[in-house]
Amino acid sequence: MFRKSASLLLIAVSAVAFSAFALASNCESDRVQLQVLGSGGPELGDQRASTSYLIWLDGKARVMVDAGGGSSLNFEKSGAQFADLDAVLFTHLHVDHSADWPVYVKAGFFTGRERDLPVFGPYGNHNLPPVDQWQHALLNQAWPYLSNYLPNEEWSDYKLPATVVNAESDIWSHDLDRLKLKALNVNHGPLPAVAWRVEAAGCTFVFSGDTSATSENLTRLSKDADLLIAHNAIPEAARGVARRLHMPPSRIGQVAADAGVKAVLLSHRMIRTLEREADTTREIRRYYQGPVSFADDLYKHSM
Question: What is the pairing mode between strands 300-302 and 32-38?
Answer without folding.
Answer: antiparallel
